[in-house]
Amino acid sequence: MSSPQTNLPTRTFTNGSDDEAVPGEDTSEVTRLFQERLQAWKHAIVYLEDYITATEKMQNAHGKEYEKVLKTVSRPLKEGQHFDQALGGVAGMFENIRSNTQGILNSHYDTAKQIKGSILPIFERLHTEIKNKNKELTKGAGKQSKAVDKARNITQKHIELLGQYTAAYDSTGGSMSATNDPYVLQRGVMHRLNKQIMEENNNRQDLITVQNSFAQFEAHIIQVMQQGMGQFMQVVSSQTEQTRAMYGDIVGTAQRIQTDFEWNGFIKRNDGILINPSAPPRSLSNISFPNQNHRATQPLIAGSLERKGKLLKKYDTNYYVVTPSKFLHEFKTDDDFAKDPTPELSLYLPDCIVGGINGAKFNVKGKDVSKGKVGNTFSMSHELAFKAHTSSAANQWWEVIRQAAGQVTNEMPETSAPGSPVSPSSTEERQPAPLNTQVLANEKETHGSAHPTSAHPTSAQPMSAGVGDGVHATDAADAVPTSGVERKPGEY
Fold it and tell me: Mean pLDDT, to the nearest integer, of 284-311?
């Protein structure tokens, strides 16, 4: 007797593609297929239970009652498409039972008692096992499929929201709230898509486990059937030679069924539905979605800056981004997957005032609009002190922010030693620190010819030489280097 075949079907996904964010496949299709198969096996065992029960009654009523036995197996098998119709399988076994039962007309009362007390319970217990297997399938893989559908619906809603506001970006010239910034929305899509893929892969692994366990379970069903039929033959062996020969033929047909015969036929008939466990799981790198990498989602500059706290006056390092929508967003990290990437702070630069640059330091005054319209109404303007890792990096950030800001002043950030003749910026330039700032877009492509400082000529006036860092401040105001903004995107 051969062991169950472990070659599994070849389908990777039912209806979806590796490049689709939300595949159109039916996640419960595999679960329903296995539930139908369990129903088929259950009804097959019910047929045997009915057959043996009717045989016990037939032993009491002799040949006349045997006509009732024949009726229990005269109907076609329910879900018969799940069984191989060729000889050597379950369907062939039932056909053999029908033909032999036709010739059995006599039995004995004692035989009926033994059938009822020892043979029938074997198949009743097997029937119960199949029911429990169906409950296990429903609570396990069936529940996980619902979780996948829920995760896909959430992802689809956020993709549609991204499409709505990327379209609004082009029609409104980039004017929108911080929470609807396409850059933020796209990061939200990536976060939910990552959760969706984890649910899909968990569901896929559950289905593979169920699929592998079905081969052993079906082998167990057939082995129990063989055991029950073997005991049944022992009970009826005391009857006449003719009856014994007919039952022997019935049992012999059941025992000749290979444990993997029905399973092999099942996977051949359903190789387009069952999952191929050797196929690779879904990967975020192979997925695309509408408006991915739209120009509204690409930051003008991004990287780490230090910002002075309000109470402790200590500088904390965070991840900052200036978007084409003219927002300066603050994030704890640039990781899209650890948590939902919602900005900790958002400044709408056209409503902000940018001071002058002093070495690696510059200030921006404005309201935090990250809480939406209600939060924006009650929030107060604050002057935020920023510090880059080097003076060169500060010039790059200041230039990008200056072009988007509503007003630029000559007010310089405070320094640690204002009376020192040595410029803080020159000291920082002699000892540069590593910087991970990225200039991700050219200011000319994003803002066009509309220069935010055109209405504020004070931004181009030279600083007074009396300022402690006057020479450097004059250079920052009159001749801010633009090479940092125009250079190719990358890390500095």
Answer: 90
